[in-house]
Amino acid sequence: MTIFQILVAAAHAAEDAQMDNIQMEGMHHHEVGGLLTIFDVLVIARWIHFASVFVLFGSSFFWFYMGHERLSSGPGGLPRAFRATIILLRVAAPAAAITGAAWLAGVLANMTGGFSNVVDPETLRLFFFETEFGPVAMVRLALLAAAVGIAALPWHGRVWLSTLLHIGAFLLITQAWLGHAAEGGAGLYGAIMIVSYCVHVLATAAWVGGLPPLLFALVEQRRFNLHEARDWTLDILSRYSLMAMTAVAFIVLSGTANAAFRVAGSFGKLFYTDYGNVLFAKIGLVAVMLVLAWFNRFVAMPRLRGASLKGMSLIVKLRTSVAFELLLGLLVLGVAAILGITPPPQ
Questions:
Q1: Could you give the CA distance from residue 24 to residue 43 in angstroms, rounded to a whole number?
Q2: Alpha helices, H only, 113-225
Q3: What residues does 36 pair with on adjacent strands?
Q4: Do the record's keywords include Transmembrane helix (predicted)?
Q5: Ranges of each domain in the chain
């Protein structure tokens, strides 16, 4: 069975299991416009929302470890890549807001039996003021509104990037209280679950969210001569790979801890279950990403460092590899969107 067949089967099984990401009574099968179920809306909204928030955090963070000189148009600067990142951030902020609201609407529809009840004032009052999820939802809506406002400002720079970076970080962290990580309770065990989740999403967002500006930077190298392009490409990749290797270490450790929490320490529960199938599909995609990252860092970069006239062709191959790594990262986020609404085998 292929990864995609596993995902489709697990997605339908999760839908039949009738559970959402906050473990309410069940996943309702009411359709939206005769086409989409509540489950579909939740998966699509979560997928796009994850990708958008990852960009807010990871793409903003990219320009801090690249150095201040990269923002300029002088020697070593990447003005075109920076402008492309600004455009991406200004698209990501409203996309995160729209899909964040759609995610919330899906949760409310699931809780109340359909989307027709989402706009009911009494339903909204009960959710925001009478449930433990309401305050978190209000904080997230405020953060999303702030992200849209900041992204729309005509000026930009390190303060602008820092603001979006912190908003993205808080959006990632607050997701912990809307999913499986919130099931540990108010004690030490629950706090460790929350911290593990936060470390996992922040490290993953730094890695995957940094890929778009990295790709922009590699594309911009085309306007330089071979010597400059090779030196600056190696410098950019070295800085990114150092960050990525640190992030991956945190991802592996926190991901292992998260899986242990979901199965109460018994990893055998992951086999032959829907949650395990989706998790293994996610691990498989991440493993391919790691292989690509390893190849770029320990094979492609040394080859480029010793290249002469063939250096430009190696840079092109690196761009292609980073683009494929980004595509895999988007697929991982899609799997994560399904995983969050699949009941763990506890």
A1: 16
A2: 121-130, 134-151, 158-174, 188-209, 211-220
A3: 32
A4: yes
A5: 3-339
**Chain centre to alpha carbon of residue 215:** 17
Can you give the pLDDT of all 346 residues of the chain as single tens digits?
Answer: 433 344 444 444 444 443 334 333 344 445 554 456 888 888 999 999 999 999 999 999 999 999 877 776 655 678 889 999 999 999 999 999 999 999 988 888 887 777 777 888 888 888 888 887 888 899 999 999 999 999 999 888 889 999 999 999 999 999 887 765 556 566 777 788 889 999 999 999 999 999 999 999 988 876 666 667 777 888 889 999 999 999 999 999 998 888 888 776 577 767 778 888 888 899 999 999 999 989 888 888 888 777 665 556 777 888 899 999 999 999 999 999 888 888 777 6
Q: How far is the C-alpha of 152 from the C-alpha of 249, rounded, in Å?
A: 35
Of the candidates 144, 134, 177, the residue with the CA atom closest to the CA atom of residue 48:
144
